[in-house]
Design brief:
Layout (H helix, E strand, L loop, with lengths): L1 H9 L4 H33 L5 H27 L6 H23 L12 H14 L33 H13 L4 H9 L13 H7 L2 H21 L7 H16 L9 H30 L5 H25 L11 H24 L11 H30 L1
């Protein structure tokens, strides 16, 4: 589609045809992007069966580093005044990328794991919720469950030990699914704080100013800090790294601080951008890869693809909220918004999101699969086997008596 658009633009074709091609191209692009982003992490993890946690985290961090790298290259392309060749460059890069994918797939398809480990998670979630809605009390529960001090919730009644049709792992997977979703408010907060402006280079703008206006400092800081974390902090200061939820809270604090320079009257526009982009670059490192790492680590295997999709959807929710705010305060799309109340509203929203996330993080219960021996379960299974064997023995005795008579 980009090639067709380039041909129409080069031949001075009608503007209606150009808009039609670009509209269809954007539709196809976002559909493909949605399918790709929601499945690429799950596919990579499926290939790394048995890999260590550090190896999985490295893959996640490099995946998150691709976004600032792309934005940084686009900023350089814009400021080198080659933006007018954007369609041609995208056409060539798309062809090269597709060719590389096809060639690499033909060479390595025998070494890749093609059996998907993903099952239908929506069906399981709906079944567990329907069972919880229909059953208020346990039915045919195990006698050993009366030893438990906590009263089971309605969703727990679906477990086999309370007479339900689901295993304990399946019910815990559904509970974990609903515990993770509120945590995505951190993604919405960071996405709300971001500002993306594209300024075409001209004779009145220096190269460094052009890079600053195109968020190059933000993306460069993000990329540099990601590499420093992978190959410096994680290697030498591993025991001092806080928990994932704590790091996400720190990232939201930096996102909040990144909006404050726009409220300071003694800073000029360049000073605002310098301070804001540095703080936002730090926030990106604490929120983006850490939240994806948290999602992959805590999500059950069956729901991991859905959770990553919701993770990406949370980014778009924050972006849409940001667009609504810019329209509400009449901010221009092509320039930096200078409305004082626009940034004040953002700061208030980010402060509320930070407080809510801190409360959710404090109450969040990590999913830890039990590896200790469950004595109650062992005793229960032992007695069930004993009663089964006794019943079979009595049946055999009765059949022998009948045959002898």
């Amino acid at each position: 589609m980009s090639g067709i658009g380039f041909i129409i633009q080069s031949c001075d074709g009608p503007i209606e045809a150009l808009w039609s091609v670009y509209s269809l191209a954007y539709l196809i692009q976002y559909i493909g992007l949605a399918f790709f982003t929601a499945n690429i992490i799950q596919y990579i993890i499926d290939q790394l069966v048995g890999a260590s946690a550090d190896e999985l985290n490295t893959v996640i961090y490099w995946h998150c580093a691709s976004l600032p790298l792309k934005s940084l290259l686009l900023s350089f392309a814009t400021c080198f005044n080659i933006y007018k060749y954007h369609n041609l460059i995208m056409f060539i890069l798309s062809g090269v990328a597709v060719s590389l994918v096809l060639v690499s797939h033909s060479f390595f398809k025998h070494q890749l794991e093609n059996i998907s480990l993903i099952k239908n998670p929506i069906k399981l979630i709906l079944r567990v919720l329907c069972h919880a809605r229909k059953h208020k009390y346990p039915e045919n529960r195990s006698a050993l469950t009366y030893w438990e001090e906590e009263v089971p919730s309605r969703i727990d009644l679906g477990k086999e030990k309370y007479g339900g049709p689901f295993t304990e792992e399946e019910v815990e997977d559904v509970k974990t699914f609903f515990r993770i979703i509120p945590i995505f408010i951190a993604i919405i907060g960071y996405s709300l704080s971001e500002e993306h402006y594209y300024h075409l280079s001209n004779a009145d703008t220096s190269f460094l100013d052009c890079l600053l206006l195109n968020d190059a400092l933000h993306t460069a800081c993000s990329l540099l800090l990601l590499l420093m974390f992978l190959y410096l902090f994680r290697v030498f200061f591993y025991k001092y790294i806080p928990s994932m939820l704590c790091r996400m809270s720190i990232g939201l604090v930096f996102a909040l601080l990144s909006r404050i320079p726009y409220l300071l009257p003694f800073l000029n526009s360049k000073g605002n951008e310098l301070a804001s982009q540095i703080l936002l670059g730090i926030s990106y490192v604490f929120v983006n890869p850490v939240s994806l790492e948290f999602t992959v680590a805590q999500s059950p295997v069956q729901t991991r693809g859905v959770m990553v999709g919701i993770w990406y959807a949370s980014w778009q929710i924050g972006s849409n909220l940001k667009i609504c705010l810019s329209l509400l305060f009449h901010c221009k799309h092509h320039g930096i918004c200078l409305n004082f109340y626009y940034y004040l509203t953002k700061i208030l929203l980010l402060f509320v999101i930070l407080i809510v996330f801190a409360l959710l993080a404090k109450k969040y219960k990590y999913r830890v699969r039990e590896t200790d021996v469950n004595i109650y379960q062992i005793v229960d299974h032992t007695y069930q086997n004993y009663f089964k064997q006794e019943k079979e023995y009595n049946n055999q005795e009765n059949s022998m008596d009948i045959s002898s008579n």
